[in-house]
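This follows on from our talk about sequence and fold. Go ahead and set the record down below:
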Amino acid sequence: MTTWEYATIPLITHMTKAILDQWGADGWELVQVVPGPGDGLVAYLKRPTNA
């Protein structure tokens, strides 16, 4: 059975692609983006653990 670890990260609007590309290169998969505080966005990511 696959187990997962999760991360929640703030996204800077003018750097969204660069931020997500970096996390993706580290093995993270984007699950969802939701409105954050103010005008910001928050991304939820997951990746399988090595368990």
